[in-house]
Structures are given as structure tokens and as C-alpha cells.
Specification:
Layout: H1 6-28, H2 37-49, H3 53-71, H4 74-97, H5 107-127, H6 134-144, H7 150-168, H8 172-194
Length: 201
């Protein structure tokens, strides 16, 4: 497979970010399911802050944008910023401009569908050699300065957010469904990027 040019990479980032946003806005946030990363953290914090979800996602990722230029090459950093902006804008576009409040369905199905869509979006973004969100940048920095794998760091951060969701929403089921959404997300990423089908890690 030939290497993508910069325009093709931005098309991948745009497509992936929009798919990711649909998973978050339509399925996860609407059903109080906190996937990992900035979207999950925003869903948890928004329980108290009551801000526009996309704006809150951007505020969480914004401080990490500066790190992109220090630890990631400039072209990749600009694509990461583009990804964050598109994701945040699309989530708020769905809620604020379209006036759509998401699809309220059984949380089991919401976690599977939402997590899978987010995984698909992230995988498409990663294929363009771009980080899908701010926490991925932190994971890369920690991995580069330790012996811990980047994937393991991301999983740990996701689990922390899932635990926070269970505490904040005071509902063990939400924590379990959030964990299920993380699992679905990682399995889709694993399949798309590595063509692996494994039920367990």
C-alpha cells in the first residue's frame, strides 16, 4: 500500500473524527456511558459542569495540543489538532445545531454500538499517522520515557475514567457498560489496524 499524501491523510482524519463523534454523541453520551479518553472524561465532568459536551472535550484536549508540537512532528501535530477540533465541533453540531439529543436505547446495545463506532473512527484516524485525541499524546510521552507500552498506558487511563463514571453517576452498571464500550472500541481498532479477531487480550 502506497504512503498517503497529506490531503489523503486529512480526509482520513476528517472521516474518522466524524464517525467517532457520532458514536459519542448519538450513543454514548446520550446513555451516560463514559468511554475512555477526552470524550469519556467530558461525559463524566459534564454531569456537574453542564457545558456543551464538544466544547468541554476541546477544553480537556486544548492543554495537550501544545505537547503535540514538542513530542510529535509538526505535520502530525497539526492533523491531531484538526482531529480534536472536528470531533468537538461535530458533537456540538449534533446537539446544538441539529437539536438532536441522542438515541436513548438499552445501555448494553448503546455501549457496543457507540464503542464500535468510536473504535472505527479512531482506527481511521490512526491510519493517517495521527493521534485521535489528547490522552494518546500523553500515553506516547510516558511510553517514550518509560518501559510501559503505549497501549497499556491508554488502557489504564481508560479504566480510571470508567471507575470515575461509576462513582460520579453512582451506578455500577454504568461503570460496567462503560468498560464494555472500551472493550468494543479496542477490539474494532485491533481488527482494523492488525486484522486480528480475539475475544480476549
Amino acid at each position: 500500500m502506497k504512503e498517503m499524501n497529506e490531503v489523503e491523510k486529512y480526509i482520513y482524519v476528517l472521516t474518522g473524527a466524524i464517525i467517532l463523534s457520532i458514536g459519542v454523541a448519538v450513543f454514548l453520551a446520550a446513555n451516560n456511558i463514559a468511554l475512555g479518553g477526552p470524550p469519556g472524561l467530558a461525559i463524566v465532568l459534564n454531569y456537574y459542569l453542564k457545558m456543551q459536551l464538544g466544547l468541554l472535550m476541546f477544553c480537556i484536549s486544548a492543554p495537550l495540543i501544545l505537547l503535540c508540537f514538542k513530542y510529535v512532528n509538526k505535520k502530525s501535530a497539526f492533523r491531531t489538532i484538526f482531529s480534536i477540533c472536528i470531533t468537538s465541533f461535530t458533537v456540538d453540531f449534533i446537539y446544538e445545531f441539529l437539536g438532536y439529543e441522542g438515541l436513548i436505547i438499552d445501555q448494553f446495545y448503546a455501549s457496543i454500538i457507540g464503542g464500535s463506532l468510536v473504535g472505527l473512527g479512531i482506527a481511521i484516524v490512526i491510519k493517517s499517522d495521527t493521534a485521535a485525541g489528547g490522552l494518546a499524546v500523553i500515553a506516547k510521552i510516558i511510553a517514550n520515557n518509560s518501559e510501559i507500552k503505549e497501549s497499556n498506558i491508554i488502557i489504564i487511563m481508560d479504566i480510571v475514567i470508567v471507575i470515575l463514571a461509576g462513582i460520579i453517576f453512582n451506578d455500577l452498571r454504568i461503570a460496567l457498560y462503560s468498560l464494555l464500550s472500551v472493550y468494543a472500541c479496542l477490539k474494532v481498532i485491533d481488527f482494523i489496524l492488525f486484522k486480528r479477531i480475539r475475544l480476549l487480550w
